[in-house]
Amino acid sequence: MVDIHVSGRDQVTLVEVHGRVDSMTASQLGEALNKELDSGNVHVVLDLSSVDYMSSAGLREIVTGLKKAKRAAGDLRLAQPSDRVREVLEMAGLDTIFRIFSTQAEAVGSF
Question: Domains along the chain?
Answer without folding.
Answer: 2-109 (3.30.750.24)
